[in-house]
Amino acid sequence: MTSIVETSIMAPAKASKQVASDWLWTYHEEPHRTRRHEIIKAHPEVTKLCGPEPLTKYVVLFVVSIQIFCAYILQSTPVFSYRFFLTAYIVGATANQNLFLAIHEISHNLAFRSAFANRMIAVFANLPIGLPYSAAFRPYHLTHHKALGVDGLDTDLPSRFEAIFLDSVLGKAFFCTFQILFYALRPMMVYRIPFTKLHFFNVTAQLVFDATLVKTCGWNALVYLVMSSFLAGSLHPCAGHFIAEHYVFERPKPSPKDAISDDPVPVETYSYYGPLNFFTYNVGLHNEHHDFPAIPWTRLWKLREIAKEFYEPLPRHTSWSYVIWQFIWDGDVSLWSRVRREQWVGSGRKVTAGWTKEEIGNMNDAIKRED
C-alpha cells in the first residue's frame, strides 16, 4: 500500500535565508476556519449534521467491556509470552486506540447534550487505558483546534528539542515507537492547565479501577491494559493517524522565523479514507473534522459527500502504515515538517487559546438546528 499526495503542494515559500532545519512559518490563518465559512455559505444544510451521536456511548461500553474481559482472561498468562503480547497488540492496542479516539470525540461534547454526561463517559472510557488523562486531554485538544499550528499554544507541535535530537532515521524510529509518551508529556512542557475537580475525579476513578482490577485479577491484568495503551501509540497501524494528520509530506524548503512567508502554505491537514476508520471513529476524515468539530464521527462521511468539491482536491493518505514507514525513511519528512504560525496572523486577528462568546454561540446555534 502507498501513501500519496494526489494534488501537488503549493510553491515553496519565499524567504530571505534558507536554513537546513526549521518549521514552515507562515502569517496565514489556519485553513479550517475559512473553509468552514465557505462550506456553510455554499451548503447551509451541513449545519444540520451537528450535534451528539447516541451510538457513541454504546460503542464505548462495548470496547470497555472487551478490554476488561481480555484483562480477566490473561490474568494467569505470562507477560513475556506470544499469547499475551499478540492479544495486547492486535486486540488491546486497537481497542485502546478506539478509546483514545472516543475521548477525542467526547471532548467535543458529541456523546450527550449534557456537558456533565460527556465528562463522565470520558472518564469511563479512560478506565481501560490504565492511566488518567481524559480530563487533561480536553482543554489541550480544544486549543489545538482553536490554535492549529500556533507557536506556544498547539501542543500537537513537536518541540525544537524533539526536532533537533530526533532528526535522523533512528531518531524518527524512536519517536514513532514512543510517540504516545511524547503526546502525553509534551503538553505540560508547553503550558500548564489548572488542576480542577474533574481532574481529581478522573485520577481517583482511575486509581480505584486499577486497584480493584489488581485485587481481583492480579497485576497481569493491569499490565495488559497499560501495554495495550503503549502499543496503541507505538508501531501500530492505527497509530499512523498521529503523524498522518498534520505533518507535511511534500514540503517546500523551510523558512526561518524572521522571514515568515506571506505566500500560500502547504496543506497542513491530511485526510485518510481507508478501512481503519472503522476502528477509529472516522478520525481519518481529519480535514472534515477540523472544518466542523461539532459534527460527530457518524456524519463526517455525509459532510464529505455534501461538500465534495471542497474535499476532493485536497491531498490525502491511503495507508497509515505506510505513513509511519515514509516518516521514518524519507529524508524530506521529519519532525520539522509542520506548519507553524505566530499568534498574530496576517488578517490582524490574534489567535488565543480561549473561545469567544460569538464562536461558542455559533456552535451552539448549529447544534440547536439539529433539534
UniProtKB/TrEMBL annotation:
Pathway listed: Lipid metabolism; sphingolipid metabolism
Major site of localization recorded for this protein: membrane
Reactions performed catalytically: an N-acylsphinganine + 2 Fe(II)-[cytochrome b5] + O2 + 2 H(+) = an N-acylsphing-4-enine + 2 Fe(III)-[cytochrome b5] + 2 H2O
EC number of this enzyme: 1.14.19.17
Protein topology in the membrane: Multi-pass membrane protein
Pfam families: FA_desaturase, Lipid_DES
Domain (Sphingolipid delta4-desaturase N-terminal): residue spans on this chain: 18-56
GO CC terms: membrane
GO molecular function, one term: sphingolipid delta-4 desaturase activity
Transmembrane residue ranges: 55-74, 80-103, 115-135, 163-185
Matching InterPro entries: DES1/DES2 (IPR011388), FA_desaturase_dom (IPR005804), Sphingolipid_d4-desaturase_N (IPR013866)
Example of a GO biological process term: ceramide biosynthetic process
Keyword DNA-binding found: no
Subcellular location: Membrane
Keywords, comma-separated and alphabetical: Lipid metabolism, Membrane, Oxidoreductase, Sphingolipid metabolism, Transmembrane, Transmembrane helix
Protein family according to the UniProt entry: Belongs to the fatty acid desaturase type 1 family. DEGS subfamily.
Job description of the protein: Delta(4)-fatty-acid desaturase which introduces a double bond at the 4-position in the long-chain base (LCB) of ceramides.
UniProt name for this protein: Sphingolipid delta(4)-desaturase
Provenance organism: Tuber aestivum (summer truffle)
